């Protein structure tokens, strides 16, 4: 007994006197699950982008910077060097019959802070080859880049779905990344591409909703099961801090500024009025929550989900 006490005292003293305790710095795995009726939806983290202030159109830069700081967001630098962190999220739907991935993240196209979708799908207990459908919100690099890796298909058993105008626009655009074009052509040539129109049904309870403006054929996806509903709204916002309070503010990435603004305003009102659970590609991970009107009647606020285990 004495020996044990002595040993414990030595251990205790050595911990007290340890010069260093290793900082772990590893984060929790990048996935978060929730249920929509009987469908399991898993948010899958791709990573983050640092966006500069001139991302925004229609707001004074100093004003945007002040709003972002007021929200205690992840920022770096100031003035011209100011940037704010924006999450890149994708969503994996398990209907119990099939696995459907909404967007593929950035792959290697956006630098080392992104490209984690495949790894996080595996962390979440699934395999890329088990995914049978990929539905794209649009074809910007942070959404389509993860479809291939070194020119090879990451999801060999999937059929891909995108808005027909969106696909035509990018495939006929000479600035479009060649690797993206090649991989999309592989799917098209193998008859594994389906063109979507507004309202198209992808599976029971999952339908596409045209939300144009950010791109020509930007789509959201509505998931309904067991009386519950989720709207995945893609890139309706980039930085939630500025664009919830000021839905009029657009971004440099929007194809049609006016259309993007009108679509965002109408959709925020709709999901706020109806209390619809909402998911966004660039909302803070896991990118899930609700939209509520601000008390002063101007704009909206984002109410993120709480971490809760599933029953
Ligand atoms: Zn995006």
Supply the key terms:
311 residues; alpha+beta; Metallo-beta-lactamase, Chain A; 8-stranded mixed β-sheet; 7-stranded mixed β-sheet; 8 helices; 30% strand; globular; binds zinc ion
Topology:
Elements: H1 2-16, E1 31-36, E2 39-52, E3 56-57, H2 61-70, E4 75-76, E5 83-94, E6 99-102, H3 117-123, E7 131-135, H4 141-144, E8 148-149, E9 152-153, E10 159-163, H5 164-171, H6 178-189, E11 193-196, E12 201-203, E13 206-210, E14 219-225, E15 228-232, H7 240-245, E16 250-251, H8 257-274, E17 277-279, E18 288-293, E19 300-304
Parallel strand pairs: 6-7, 7-10, 10-11, 15-17
Antiparallel strand pairs: 1-2, 2-5, 3-16, 4-5, 5-6, 8-9, 12-13, 13-14, 14-15, 17-18, 18-19
Bound molecules: zinc ion.
Description:
The protein has 311 residues and is an alpha+beta fold. It has a single domain, classed as Metallo-beta-lactamase, Chain A, CATH 3.60.15.10. 26% of the residues lie in helices and 30% in strands. It has eight helices and 19 strands. Strands 1, 2, 4, 5, 6, 7, 10 and 11 form an eight-stranded mixed beta sheet that branches. Strands 12-13-14-15-17-18-19 form a seven-stranded mixed beta sheet. Strands 3-16 form a two-stranded antiparallel ribbon. The termini are far apart. The site of zinc ion has 6 residues, from α4. Zinc ion (ZN) binds next to α4.
